[in-house]
Amino acid sequence: MNLNIYLITDDKYFRDRELIPTVEKALQGGVTAVQYRFKNKTTREMFEELTQLRELTRRYGADLVVNDRVDLALGVEADGVHVGKEDLPPEVVRKVVGDKLFIGYSVNSVEEIERTNEMPVDYIGFGSVYPTSTKEKFVLAGLEALSEAVKRSSKPVVAIGGIMQYRVPEVIKAGAKNIATVSGILGFEDVKSAAESFVRAYKDTVRQLLLMGKLV
Q: Residue 80's closest CA among 123, 117, 115, 45?
């Protein structure tokens, strides 16, 4: 499971773009994981796209995560599945997938972290760290809450929500070692260059903190 640079797809950014070539450019730029998240496609369309994405992500050594759809995640032999509060409970998901997939779960407050520590999940998606345009309804958690969530969580935390390249340093300094983004990469015409900039900001900040002895 390598969720350091975690790209999430969204309908908004694929109205005039082809999925597979675009994701490949992001992978070429250094993305380590891809979450397939679409709301307005048929199950057959999603299955066919995921089949291609499975082959692509394997070629680049990246993880493939499917949002919500446990059946599709199992069907294409994805690496993981990500669920939220309105989806199947993590306990049920674990019964269905066993140890075939890792499970991610979304929370947006520090108070929820204690409960997730007891859940059969492998990582926590925490946010929204900043205001975001990819979700109509989002809860703004903020950097301080992210820092506290990382301290309290017994699972790896993935920071999410409005994280652009220029915000990467402060997110890492808040304690997050894994960063998810949509618009931070897909919001640019040159997706490969955007991914490279995102990865460079990540690596430069990690290197700086290691030299200063501030990264465990």
A: 123
Task: Give domain limits for the chain.
Answer: 5-211
Neighbours of 203 (CB within 10 A): 14
Distance, in Å, from the CA atom of 118 to the CA atom of 160, rounded to the nearest integer, reads 22
Residues paired with 157 in a beta bridge: 124
Task: Please check whether residue 134 is in contact with residue 12, taking contact to mean a CB–CB distance below 8 angstroms.
Answer: yes
Helical spans, DSSP H, in the chain: 19-28, 43-59, 70-75, 90-97, 110-116, 143-152, 168-173, 183-186, 191-211
Encode pLDDT of 144-191 as tens digits: 999 999 999 999 999 999 999 999 999 999 999 999 999 999 999 999
N residues, the chain: 216
In angstroms and rounded to an integer, the radius of gyration of the C-alpha atoms of the chain is 16
Distance CA 90, CA 168 (A): 29
CATH class of 5-211: alpha beta
For the stretch 92-148, pLDDT in tens is 999 999 999 999 999 999 999 989 999 999 999 998 999 877 766 677 888 999 999
**Residue 104 β-bridge partners:** 82, 123
Q: Cα(75)–Cα(36) distance, rounded to whole angstroms? A: 14
pLDDT for 215 equals: 67
- Which amino acids are annotated catalytic? 37, 106, 135
Q: Render pLDDT for 34-63 as a digit per residue (tens, 0 to 9).
A: 999 998 899 999 999 999 999 999 999 999
Does 21 have pLDDT greater than 60? yes
